[in-house]
Specification:
The protein has 239 residues and is mainly α. Helix content is 68%, strand content 3%.
Length: 239
């Protein structure tokens, strides 16, 4: 492919496939780097969305087999999706590790499928752990059960992005400011929502502090488990 700059002679510009408006060819380097960053951030979203949806599918299907009630109402599911979308939308502005732009990457469906299955199953395991805890400490309290799973689902889905976004340990790869701000904001909104007047129309009720602490412990264990599995996964599965 022929490349020329706008200040070149007419013959060179007519023969070129691309004419750069800038005089420097550094624009090509920046374009390649920008393209690789965009591709890396696209993969982050794909990894997160596929694994989360795969895990939620198992969780909802499994819960419906042994629960005598719906684990979440349709409006509650829609609210969950809305809240988790906010951190996901900021992935486009996220910072990218240097290793991800050093060389070109290819779209690998096989790798995405393996990632989806591994991390989707991990997500589902901790969903079932949440079910068991809520059923034990809140027997017969359907609205509190739904509130508990809603809280765990939104906060864990928001925080797991910080793990999935990088091959490095999450504390060694600094996320973009918008992603970090959205994650913190959604966590605060989710915890506070059941205590607001808007909770009743959605069928939520405030949770005891002891239950909130249990959910926090489950989420913390989920993040640590996902971080450990991530390290093993990238050692065994090449991309």
């Amino acid at each position: 492919m022929g490349i020329s700059v706008d200040s070149a002679v007419d013959v060179a510009k007519e023969a070129a496939d691309i004419v750069l408006m800038e005089k420097s060819l550094d624009a090509l380097v920046e374009g390649v780097r920008g393209g690789r960053k965009t591709f890396a951030n696209t993969l982050k979203y794909v990894f997160m969305a596929t694994s989360a949806n795969f895990g939620n599918m198992f969780s909802m299907a499994g819960a419906s087999l042994f629960l005598p009630f719906l684990p979440l109402l349709p409006t509650q599911i829609l609210l969950t999706n809305l809240l988790t979308d906010f951190p996901e939308m900021t992935i486009a502005t996220d910072s990218v590790d240097v290793e991800m732009v050093e060389k070109p990457r290819r779209w690998d469906i096989g790798f995405i499928r393996k990632f989806m299955m591994v991390f989707g199953i991990i997500s589902s395991v901790f969903d079932f752990m949440t079910f068991c805890v809520l059923l034990l400490v809140l027997p017969g309290m359907i609205e509190q059960f739904r509130t508990g799973w809603f809280t765990e689902s939104v906060i864990s889905a928001s925080m797991i992005v910080l793990v999935i976004r990088s091959r490095k340990p999450f504390f060694r790869s600094r996320p973009g400011k918008y992603l970090m701000a959205a994650t913190v904001l959604i966590g605060i909104v989710t915890l506070g929502f059941p205590f607001t007047p808007f909770a009743a129309p959605f069928g939520f009720k405030p949770l005891p502090i002891s239950v909130i602490l249990m959910i926090a412990a489950i989420i913390g264990l989920y993040i640590l488990t996902a971080e450990t599995i991530k390290r093993i996964f990238y050692k065994r599965v090449k991309f």
